[in-house]
């Protein structure tokens, strides 16, 4: 694998795709001291070829179809973004960070997934992301992360804060285990990834929990008096299958992220909670 001098990447701008998404916004903040071209969905729909004149030195590709259940209903539309979009981004010819997901795994393991584990996605979303990894090409860091949350956009933390303020009890799935990862921590770790060889890297929060554990932690940290009723994935009845276990760890020395609870506290502080 080729190793890039990170300084040489900075001669031309850093392009951030999906800059309006939760990770995209965190990346824009993290790379604020660089020359950045931040393109949101309305600036460039990545399922179409790139707009003329883009000549980045590095691409942080955070644009994606992330509606897991929607991808089950519209797999071709999801593939147009997650595979076609990544192909278009790779065609720019710059080194590329392509963010991917724990959902490339089937979740049958009972110990953390490492980079050499074979992917076997159970959902249409996971399949499009896995094909997107291949579309990123040779000059790419594939950064797999999991259960992202941050102060903006649509995510579990923001949903639980809303529900926890409205209700006395929420039903939350207790048979899926993963590592909730704060986008600020993932954005900061992206800098360290740029110093590693191209290839696949697992970069997720330390620690793991179920969604129900996570909900309880959110309520506890936010001081919300709301009970968590632990339910099964089957009981929730979502269209797309999710891995029962998708904790990611690196066997290759990827940057270590703080514990998910620390990420949760940072996120709540950003939200003024
Ligand atoms: N969310 C998670 O739990 C999670 C877990 C592991 C990995 N990841 C990966 O991490 C990356 C960032 O995810 P995220 O959580 O930041 O997702 P997000 O908040 O949904 O952001 C994705 C962004 O991509 C944009 N987008 C969608 N279709 C597009 C298109 N055709 N062209 C250009 N932009 C488009 C969205 O814009 P609109 O909202 O306007 O459509 C949104 O701003 C993705 O690659 C995702 O697969 C996410």
Can you offer a commentary on this structure?
With about 270 residues, the chain is of the alpha/beta class. Helices cover about 35% and strands about 15% of the residues. It has helices at about 20-30, 70-75, 75-90, 125-135, 155-165, 185-195, 210-220, 235, 260-270; strands spanning about 15, 35-40, 60, 95-100, 140-145, 150, 170-175, 175-180, 180, 200, 210, 225-230. It has a six-stranded parallel beta sheet, with helices on both faces. Strand 4, helix 4 and strand 5 form a beta-alpha-beta unit. The longest helix has 16 residues, at about 75-90. The structure holds NADP nicotinamide-adenine-dinucleotide phosphate (NAP). NADP nicotinamide-adenine-dinucleotide phosphate binds next to helix 1, helix 3 and strand 4.
């Amino acid at each position: 694998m080729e190793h890039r001098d990170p300084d040489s990447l900075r001669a031309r701008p850093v392009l951030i795709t999906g800059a309006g998404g939760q990770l995209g916004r965190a990346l824009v903040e993290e790379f604020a001291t660089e020359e950045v071209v931040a393109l949101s969905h309305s600036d460039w729909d990545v399922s179409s070829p790139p707009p003329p004149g883009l000549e980045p030195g590095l691409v942080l590709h955070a644009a994606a179809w992330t509606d897991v259940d929607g991808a089950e209903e519209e797999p071709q539309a999801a593939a147009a973004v997650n595979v076609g979009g990544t192909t278009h981004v790779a065609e720019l010819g710059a080194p590329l960070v392509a963010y991917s997901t724990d959902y490339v795994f089937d979740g049958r393991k009972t110990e953390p997934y490492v980079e050499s584990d074979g992917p076997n996605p159970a959902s249409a979303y996971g399949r499009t992301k896995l094909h997107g990894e291949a579309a990123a090409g040779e000059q790419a860091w594939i950064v797999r992360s999991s259960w992202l949350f941050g102060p903006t956009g649509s995510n579990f933390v923001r949903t639980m804060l809303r529900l926890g303020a409205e209700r006395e009890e929420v039903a939350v799935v207790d048979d899926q285990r993963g590592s909730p990862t704060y986008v600020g921590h993932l954005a900061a770790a992206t800098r360290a990834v740029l110093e590693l060889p191209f290839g696949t890297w697992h970069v997720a929060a330390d620690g793991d929990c179920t969604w129900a554990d996570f909900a309880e932690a959110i309520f506890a940290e936010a001081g919300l008096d709301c009970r968590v009723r632990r339910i099964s994935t089957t009981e929730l009845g979502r269209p797309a299958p999710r891995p029962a276990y998708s904790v990611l760890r690196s066997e290759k020395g990827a940057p270590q992220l703080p514990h998910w609870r620390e990420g949760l506290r940072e996120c709540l502080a950003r939200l003024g909670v």
